[in-house]
Every structure is written in structure tokens, then in C-alpha cells.
Amino acid sequence: MDFRKLATSGDSAIVPRSTFHEYNGNGNLMRLSRKPDESVRSSAVMALFVERWSEKEGRRIPYLVLLQKTPAKKNTNYQHAGQVSFPGGVFDEKLDKNLLETAMRETFEEIGLKNVELLNDTLPSTTTGARNFNVQPFIGRIVDCESEIPYHLQSDEIAHVFEIRLLDLIANPNVSLYEPLGKTIMAPTSTHYGPLYHLKNIHSITHNQTIPYVPLWGYTATVVTQILDGLNFELANK
Fold it and tell me: Which helix (H) or strand (E) holds 192?
């Protein structure tokens, strides 16, 4: 899978298929350019990467961009309040021609970014949750980010933006108890199947503060695991 090249150093390792404003894909991406099946509720997310230069290591280091939803008292979408997620949302037939446009539009609405390149691989869509959503993940890279990234949050939905080093995710997957909405579950289970990542002492880019602990679970954790499985572990540890 071509997105494993994120684990190598240098811009030449990144192979963009299209930009945020332009769509010229084929194969899987051509299939995804069609209008979604109207018989199911369709949505899309954008798994975003950013490369940060490390003086210590002398190379660019890939990070995954994750969002944390606002608390329930502020977030009208209570089902996902406080959860860690990718930018994304529901297909809107009035605004979107296809699911790629959904992912792009939601990325701009939630965190204010347009400077995104699509990588030339996609992950499989998944039907998830009691609401029977079919979710299509896309993989993108933030470009023109030598300095501070101008994140602009949709404040009624997004509380924080985190940039998590890939190696930290590879080194720290876990499965344990978690209590979403006060209800104890075990991950994986028949309802919430997948890993639970314990994100500890992570830095909020948008608020310049350290968050002691944030659980990453559910659908987003499943997609993160698929991405990590597609990366070459040795390259990620260079």
C-alpha cells in the first residue's frame, strides 16, 4: 500500500493522487467518485498525516492528526461527544457529488484545512454502529506546513486537535476496559470490536496544553490499526 511510504523520510516518498481542489483518480478512487448508494446512510472520514522535521533525528517524522469532539454539554451530536476521531461526516446530496467531496468538505468545516493532498490508496468502507452508517475512509497529507498549521476549529463540535507520532501508536496499542457514557464495555466485543489505544500526556495543538489521558477506541481505532498494519514497521522505526 503506497501510504506506507509515509514512514520514510523526504517529500519524494509521498505520492499524491490529487489535491483538495482537484479529482483525477482511477481504480478505487474512480469507484469512490460515484454517488453513494442511497439505500444506506453514507459518510466519509479523512485520515490526515503531517510531516514534522526532527532536528534530533535529521529527518521528517510522520504524525497522524486526530480530533477530540466537544463534551456532551456543548456537542449536539451526543453519541460521539468527547470521542477521538478523524475529520468527517455524513454525505450531503445537496453539497457533495461523492464521498471524497464529503471528506474534503468536512475537513474544511471542522478544522479549516484545504491544503490537503490525497494519497493514492484508500481503505475499505465499513458499515458501523447501530445507525447503520457505511463509512469510507480516505488517507491524506497536509501540505505547505513548514510552520504552524492554521487549524480553525468548528467550536461547537471540535475541542482539540492532536498530532500523534506514528511510532507511538505502533508501540502502544492496547486492549482493556473502557466506560463510554458510563457503560463498561470490553474492547474488542461484538459491539465495539477493535483495539483501544491509551493516549497519555498528549499535546493539544490548538490549545497548547497537555491532556493527561484520552482513549482512542471504536471505528477510529480500527482505521488507525488498518493504517499501521499497512506500514512497514522497520521503516517506521528508522
Answer: none
Q: Rounded CA gap, 116 and 62, in Å?
A: 15
As given in the structure block, the three cell numbers for residue 164 are 500523534
Cα 151 to the center of its chain, rounded Å: 15
Separation of alpha carbons 113 and 107, rounded Å: 6
Place of cell 465495539: 192
CB 87 within 8 A of CB 10: no
> Could you read off the pLDDT of 153-202 as tens digits, one per residue?
998 889 999 999 988 887 765 545 444 444 444 444 444 445 778 888 89
How far is the CA of 102 from the CAs of 56, 81, 98, 176, in angstroms?
A: 38, 21, 7, 33
Tell the burial category of 168 from Cβ atoms under 10 Å away from its Cβ (0-12, 13-18, 19+). Answer: middle
Domains with residue ranges and CATH for the chain? 2-233 (3.90.79.10)
